[in-house]
Amino acid sequence: MPQKALIIIDVQNALCSGEYKTFNSENVISTINSLSNVARKKQLPVIFVQHQAKDGPLKEQSKGWQLAEGLIKEEDDIIVQKRFSDAFKDTDLAAQLSSLDVSELVICGMQSEFCVDSTLRHALSRGFSITVVSDAHTTLDTRVLDAKTISAHHNETWANISSYKYTPKVMSAKAIEESL
């Protein structure tokens, strides 16, 4: 029977503290923990996507590369390592989802306009139904826009993508928890 999976993208130490700390990361982590707890209780797969780089703040095996402090990962959760903003590119994510008979992804994480967006759009092109957790993705301020505006803009954009089989649903974590 097809099922949903929770995809948690790049919630890593480097994006939750210091120079690259994302907006509202503590609340995002708390929201993700609550949602992942509900997903596990419903026996839905929880998949952590972890970006690894050859150098920089997300250098593989560095403190910044590790999953964020306070983020709850259970033994049965899956970790997918990636080197590109798209969590499907050169990873086993598609194979993992296929083996679990997953047809709908619930997506959250960091950064809204990079890895979350790239992964979401690739998933749409593969025919997945998508639900974005509107209050569990975030990013950094840029020279042009603040992080809160970037995330809000992406929520609006994703909810209006209509060129694929499915239009993404954009819902709060609370609404998603009630619908799982």
From TrEMBL:
Keywords: Hydrolase. SUPFAM superfamilies: Isochorismatase-like hydrolases (SSF52499). It holds the Pfam family Isochorismatase. One of its GO terms (molecular function) is hydrolase activity. Residues 5-142 form the Isochorismatase-like domain. This is Cysteine hydrolase. It comes from Reinekea thalattae.
